[in-house]
Design goal:
The protein has one domain (4-178). 40% of the residues lie in helices and 26% in strands. The protein contains four helices and seven strands. The protein has helices spanning 4-13, 41-48, 99-132, 143-165, and strands at residues 20-24, 27-37, 55-57, 60-67, 70-80, 86-93, 136-138. Strands 1-2-6-3 form a four-stranded mixed β-sheet, sandwiched between helices. Strands 4-5-7 form a three-stranded antiparallel β-sheet. The chain starts with a helix and ends in a 23-residue tail after the last helix. Bound molecules: zinc ion. The site of zinc ion has 6 residues, from α3.
Length: 188
């Protein structure tokens, strides 16, 4: 959920692999995988610990539909922009990986995907939640301006998820539909 400028700098710093996709709530989102190399497993564990090393970039569409009860009003509609929103997940490696280390790195990757998919799922849910409020927008007002009071709500839902799961380190605490294994890198 970082700023776009920071995200672009990150993408330029890594070799972005061909874009893949993840499906969340029946919607397809881009998945950018970048390779990150370390000296060894302990180096990776030390550098990655305590940080959210994957990122979900979420963008919303705002619109308005006619209010059936008042021709001068429209109702705010918010949806996740599936074209623009995407997740970035690193794939980590180091020289001479043992098969156990390859498994540990694969597991880390899979668990990161689960955590970031959760951010997208929450974005879809909270956009629907804002739409369900049937907030009215005067016909002459840009619906984007009407969204401002709800932007905090959309952000808060993402922060609650990160607080609850400690950025995925405690993914087992997530709501049932988003639950997964706790993210960790097991160095033998
Ligand atoms: Zn997170």
């Amino acid at each position: 959920m970082n700023a776009v400028a920071i995200m672009l700098a990150t993408l330029l710093a890594f070799d972005a692999a061909p874009t893949q996709s993840v499906v969340v709530s029946g919607m397809t989102f881009g998945l950018v995988v970048h390779q990150r190399s370390f000296k060894d497993c302990d180096d990776a564990a030390a550098q990655l610990s305590g940080k959210e090393i994957a990122v979900a970039h979420v963008f919303y569409h705002y619109g308005a539909v006619p209010d059936p009860s008042d021709p001068d009003l429209r109702l705010l509609v918010v949806a996740v922009d599936t074209e623009k929103s995407y997740v970035e997940i690193p794939r980590i490696s180091w020289p001479y990986m043992s098969s156990a280390e390859i498994q540990a790195a694969d597991r880390l990757y899979d668990d990161l995907v689960i955590h970031e998919r959760g951010h997208l799922a929450i974005a879809v849910e909270s956009a629907a939640e804002v739409t369900a409020l049937k907030h009215t927008v005067p016909a002459n007002v840009d619906p984007r301006a009407a969204l401002t009071p709800f932007a905090a709500l959309l952000d808060a839902r993402q922060r609650e998820y990160d607080a609850l799961t400690a950025h995925g380190v405690r993914q087992s605490r997530a709501p049932a539909n988003l639950r997964g294994d706790d993210i960790r890198l097991d160095c033998k």
